[in-house]
Amino acid sequence: MTINLSKGQQVSLTKSGGGELGVVRMGLGWKSAPRKGFLARLTARDIDLDASAVLFAGQEPQDVVFFQHLTSDDGSVQHTGDNRVGGAGEGGDDESIVVDLRRVPAHVDQIVFTVNSFTGQTFEEVEAAFCRLVDESNGQELARYTLTGGGRHTAQIMAKVQRSGAGWQMTAIGAAADGRTFQDLMPAVAQHL
């Protein structure tokens, strides 16, 4: 059963039958919004959204996984590859980041997921955008957060997973930001640690 998250909502990452999740995938999907007018359609560029995961120990970034660094130094977080055009809106993941929660180093206490428009278009030009959390052991979608509202921003602080006792929990953040890369978003990310 999928939980549709609203901004700021938290969900514990435990299996419905008990036990902790081992490997989760944060998926990102989107498509370009339809262009209005003949000239707008002729001059339209593909939209390249990029998913990133920043690993933190307290307030200090320890590592980052993104299209130019596909695997964390410890191997616990892996980006599946860069998609430069998005999908057709069928609901599949256009970019994914897989996290083996069992292998995340003990000093890393939270992982923040971001999305940014590398090509600089605003979210007004994107539709059907979402992020979702999937249990990789069985493919079950655990939580989905719809990146709604469009807006003149070029990035979102999507969600984070953080240690909670012996397990993990996910928080949907959904905060608008501006920037073409994860580096541009670090001041905005810091507000959600």
UniProtKB/TrEMBL annotation:
<feature type="domain" description="TerD">
    <location>
        <begin position="1"/>
        <end position="180"/>
    </location>
</feature>
<protein>
    <submittedName>
        <fullName>TerD family protein</fullName>
    </submittedName>
</protein>
<dbReference type="InterPro" id="IPR003325">
    <property type="entry name" value="TerD"/>
</dbReference>
<dbReference type="Pfam" id="PF02342">
    <property type="entry name" value="TerD"/>
</dbReference>
<dbReference type="InterPro" id="IPR051324">
    <property type="entry name" value="Stress/Tellurium_Resist"/>
</dbReference>
